[in-house]
Amino acid sequence: MSTPWHILGAGSLGTLWATRLARCGVPVRLILRDAARLASYNAGAGLTLVEHGIAQTYPVTGETPDIPEPIHRLLVACKAYDAQSAIAQLQYRLVPGAELILLQNGLGSQDAVAAQLPQARCIFASSTEGAFRDGEWRVVFAGHGYTWLGDAAHPAPPQWLEDLRAAGIPHEWSADIVTRLWRKLALNCAINPLTVLYQCRNGGLQDHHCEVATLCAELTELLERCGQPAAAEDLHSEVQRVIHATAANYSSMYQDVANARRTEISYLLGYACQAAARHQLVLPHLQQLHARLVDYLSARGLASH
Ligand code: NAD
Ligand code: KPL
Prior knowledge:
Layout: E1 5-8, H1 12-23, E2 28-31, H2 35-42, E3 47-51, E4 54-58, E5 61-63, E6 71-76, H3 83-88, E7 94-102, H4 109-116, E8 121-127, E9 130-135, E10 138-143, E11 147-150, H5 161-167, E12 171-173, H6 177-197, H7 209-225, H8 229-232, H9 235-245, H10 252-258, H11 269-278, H12 284-299
Parallel strand pairs: 1-2, 1-6, 2-5, 3-10, 6-7, 7-8, 11-12
Antiparallel strand pairs: 3-4, 8-11, 9-10
Helix pairs in contact: 1-5, 6-7, 6-9, 6-10, 6-12, 11-12
This protein binds nicotinamide-adenine-dinucleotide (NAD) and ketopantoate.
């Protein structure tokens, strides 16, 4: 039997990956928070994927983090702010040389996990796929996209990319994954906070053209100073293109706030502002945007870190 995929986090992306891998016969183990969550999961028939309006249920095996089974391959599908603590509880199960695939958006959590696990291979991922939960143990595949994977320290692609191909998970091994993550972070910084503050869909930012342009200029300066000139290239045009192409959508941060969920601010705008401070770069509009967003979240009782 091929090496099992352990999946940590039975949320939107974790379920999207688990169901597609299980569908093609790859062994999958879903790691749930604790015995109570496992009991709730085992009371049902498994994980359900809704694609093109059709629901299919897959009987993926669940387990708790503390069982004494070794883990060779771990897909980390938690939010950025949960990744380190979620991994800590099963760290002792990771075999030397275990491979982790980190699906977190933004930057900061990946390096923290890699520092926590010096004996593991940490593969960073950046995904444009979209999914949301419409019930317990159920996920709707909302946006078909692509996942880029890469390991800046060891550029050779792993053999298990074949599992992704078999599972129909569109992907590409990327030699410049960190650049991709910076580019996505910059896009998210230029769009998501403003959609929260103006309470609008992405397309609503067409009415705030100057503010977006100013932020893009500062983000471009930051990317260049951080040694990421490729991520900075034509940033403003790309942001305008995304605003136009996703005009009818609400950004992920808007949706988090609308549902009173914690945002990943520290790994997006917070990370950008910290990087600017490290480089003694003064970016007044970006810093003011961060302060406005922190105030906005705090006023609604949401974590601002
Ligand atoms: P989610 O909140 O739907 O799922 C995260 C899951 O992790 C939850 O079920 C949570 O209970 C679980 N979890 C947290 N701590 C845990 C622990 N200690 N043990 C076990 N489980 C634990 O989040 P998501 O939307 O799937 O996002 C995951 C990451 O992927 C985020 O960084 C997000 O920005 C990124 N992302 C999501 C999408 C999307 O469409 N959902 C798209 C691209 C990127
Ligand atoms: O990724 C996004 C998000 O909503 O998080 C886009 C659509 C690019 C907006 O920043």
